[in-house]
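Entry 14. Structure prediction run on the chain below.
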Amino acid sequence: MNRIALFIPYFGQWPAWAELYFASCTQQQGVDFHYFTDLQPIAPPPQLSLHQSSNLHFHPISFADYCRLVSDRLGIDFQPERPYKLCDLRPFYAIVHSDLLREGNYDFWGFADLDLVWGDLKAFYTDDLLHRYDIFSTHDDRFSGHLCLLRNKPSLNTAALRLPHWKERLCSQQNYALDEMAFTLLFYPQARLLWKVHRHLYLRYASHFRNEFRSYGKFCQWINALCGLRRRGIYLKEMYTSPYVTPNFVPAGGASYRYADGHITDLATGEALPYLHFVFLKTIWTPQQATPPAHTTDLLISPDGILPWQSSKEVKFPTSPTNIPTRR
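Output returned:
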């Protein structure tokens, strides 16, 4: 079995869904989660955790000390004012945490978000697939910041050092989205074409497409194949993990998902997901809606919040006139 290390520095306070998140982490066989944080560890409640939490590793450290560690490992003066700047650091994790990569003898390393709940990750990234490719993303046009995996080998571990002006950008207080934009272009410069087509065609004329999101995905697959992306060991595949919702818009199907027995199912399509990303859902949830109910392992996750599945009721959601979600 391939072993994966996910590095996640996190400072501030745990989100309302933290217990559910950590419980879903414990169900990921072969995946170790390394947290660098000034927060107290959270033990997943027994009713949500199917396995013992031996794959959760908490490394106590303050934000200031973590920044000093980064400065020492990269030879820069890394002093960000806000922890969100750590997103730009993600491509450098294999350098910053090279000691953990060696000690754990990992096959892959990567980065991930905390505003999500995991499904069955290894059902999507099987050992056969992991043997065939070196880089994995759940987007089809870029490396995904909420989950990206890279093979543990020198050429990939140090690839970030080839990013243009990386020292200046890391030392700046500005966020450059190095993890999703510049890091993608390092391996796939043709992605610029995809982004331009999406911005100038699919978004501008969205009403002309039955489903702009899926249509753009098919276009990406065609360009990716034309560029021989998979022959180069890069596996970009849109997993539709981040439903787009706002207070005034919810896509057809209601953006509703069932979480049960460590699996996530999109109720509109019946498809399983490797994880469900709350990036838009959390913007319309109240703290109470974002808090999972106690004493249940069967959940409905929707714009109405995280609810017990058996007490959930059908809800009519507002939709836009075209009922077409925009890109991420």
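Residues 314-328 have pLDDT under 50 and may be disordered.
Filed with the rest of this week's runs.
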